[in-house]
Amino acid sequence: MNGSREEGSGDYARSGRAAPTRRFRPRWAPTLAAALLVPLFIAAGQWQWNKASVKAERQQQFDALASGPAVPTPAGRVAAETLRYRQVVARGTYEPERQILIDNRIHQQRAGFHVVTPLRIEGSDVRVLVNRGWIPGPAERERVPEVATPRAPVEVSGQAIVPTSRFFTLKEEISDGEWPQVWQNLDMERYARLAGFPVQPVVIQMSADSTAGGFVREWPRPDDRRLTNLGYALQWWSFAATTVALWLYHGLRRKP
Q1: What does the pLDDT look like over 205-228, one tens digit per residue?
Q2: Pairing of strands 127-136, 199-206
Q3: pTM of the model
Q4: Is 38 exposed, middle or buried (0-12, 13-18, 19+ CB in 10 A)?
Q5: Closest Cα partner for 254 from 24, 11, 1?
Q6: What is the number of alpha carbons within 13 Å of residue 104 lying toward its C-beta?
Q7: C-alpha distance across the termini of the chain, in Å
Q8: Distance in angstroms (rounded) separating the CA atoms of residues 225 and 134
């Protein structure tokens, strides 16, 4: 067997011809596909990486400010960054007539709502929205759950959060004088416009030990799903590397 392999490997030497070699001759179609896909994959990976970096920075800010002493919520409107992530305290009266339920909030794999109620700050006409926590949704999706709300003045403690504004909402108004109770997202600009009163640009996520009429309060961290973003980034970059490897492999043609 060894002799036959040695004999086969010497065929080109006995015939006077050189063994076949490969040279790089890329075809236009794979080259075009690689030129389009590789930058796309790299950009997608960088986008996910940047999202993870932003979440890490926000978590650092969150941890630094959350450990500080609680500050009273100002009676006058302030810039959102003044209160972002700070522990705050607000005393006032709930106004359930302008309460909203944020739909499709999941807790322990069960769908429900976040209850967001405006609190009229004591001695002011400014309101601050209070996220009082999660409640389960009723079995009949078209039915709006009833929510018990304290009528007496309360003192709310929690953390000030600036809601995201990266979503699309229709510029709808109140129809037939009926307040829209169920919202898909909390759009602060839309809320203030429909409610017709001044609102602080932050939402108080009620703390777990607050006794001001709260529900289930397990708030996500700012770096929630950060590792998922990093995994997606590495996945996109591996697609780019694989595309380059395939382009190089198919571009190496056997030279006769």
Answers
A1: 999 999 999 999 988 777 777 888
A2: parallel
A3: 0.71
A4: middle
A5: 24
A6: 4
A7: 28
A8: 20
